[in-house]
Amino acid sequence: MTEIAIIGGSGFSRLKSLQITRKEVIHTPYGEASAPLMHGLLAGVPVVFLPRHGPGHTIPPHKINYRANIWALKSIEVCNVISVAAVGGITGNMEPGVLAVPDQIIDYTYGRHQTFFENDLTKVTHIDFTRPYCEAVRQALIQGAQKSAQQVQTHATYGAVQGPRLETAMEIHRMEQDGCDLVGMTGMPEAALAREFGLCYATLALVVNWAAGKSPGEISLQEIEANLEEGMLCVHRLMEQAVPILGQNQ
Ligand code: HPA
User: Fold this and answer.
1) CATH number at residue 197
2) Which helix (H) or strand (E) holds 209?
3) How far is the CA of 146 from the centre of ligand 1 (A)?
4) Nearest CA to 105 among 12, 3, 239, 201?
5) How far apart are the first and last CA of the chain?
6) Cβ distance 91 to 181 under 8 Å?
7) Strand partners, 8
8) Residue 25: predicted pLDDT
9) How many domains does the chain have?
10) Ligand 1 centroid to 187 CA: how many Å?
11) The dihedral of CA 54, 59, 60, 65: what is its sign?
12) 84, 185, 206, 210: which to mutate for ligand 1, most atoms within 8 A of CB?
């Protein structure tokens, strides 16, 4: 049984420190997951890896089959999910290069399948989502940062937007007034679906650009790429420490 899953986002479609032992195609009632599940070992701990945007990074955020992905993980009895995500930084302490483990979410997405509890219900079902992320996985990520001698922001609100376009400066201004520190396109409904299935889910966010209007000029996609490449090395270092901590908790 593989209890820890890693959902990798942009720049993280492959886990170079993961020794893949087998791939598993899962058929779900919601269709295909983004990719076959890749089983392997990370720092000696069994994990399963799922690239959110597909193996060749071809699935845009609004087309990801979030339900199939979470269903696939649940079906192989995963308990803990680490989601890795590239984000834009909104507030002053969230400059490019920063690692953050958000503790809150504001959802601005629309037109996505938001729930498993939609049809064929014997009872209308609501989940508590007061604290959208699982504290045990958050703490493993925070300790992973400490053990790999890296700074991490431990309180941040993730604003989930629809994309695929980036935001206008005034949209970001409004999000800041709402209380968002980070902006990304894939945090929801993934986190809510994980909670619906009782999975312990948290996000490790890497800031790859200042959000719209937060730096002079326009957002440079080359700069995003460069920050992504550099930052992912830090993400790998952190994960190599965080995964064994999570493994010990089990
Ligand atoms: N906005 C939305 N999503 C993002 C951004 C951004 O600026 N950067 C990385 N993902």
Assistant:
1) 3.40.50.1580
2) strand 200-210
3) 26
4) 201
5) 12
6) yes
7) 51
8) 95
9) 1
10) 11
11) negative
12) 185
